[in-house]
Amino acid sequence: MTKEETINKINEVKQMKLPHMTYAKVKQYHYGNILGFEETEENIKIMDEYFYRFLDPKNEQFKNGCWVCGNKDIYLSWGITHGIAHSNCCGLSYNVLHYPKDICKDKKLFDDCLKIILQYHPEGFEVRKD
After folding, report:
1. CA 127 → CA 7, 52, 58, 109, 122, distances in Å?
2. Statement: the pTM of the whole predicted model exceeds 0.70
């Protein structure tokens, strides 16, 4: 993919207004109750703000597929940043490990690592034109 094609793809996908991930969806899709998480209004708000940066993996447009290349069979390789993996198809970063300190540095929200593979939402992407 050329730089121009990448810019066009990001802009095209941003126009689709894809749904963001939320705490309720994490709970529904993967866990039920998260170990050690106290469901207060404040804690749920913190989780929602954190998960907003990710795409809902069960959205209709890219259901369990990549929003960059559209591939449904995504194979990930670990990068050098802890908890981040990259698609072997197009290189898109995925966050695979989510820790309490990543979500809220001031207090511990839950007891364990959430092992959820999430794509970053396209709203957070841009390609510099320089």
Report:
1. 6, 20, 26, 34, 11
2. yes
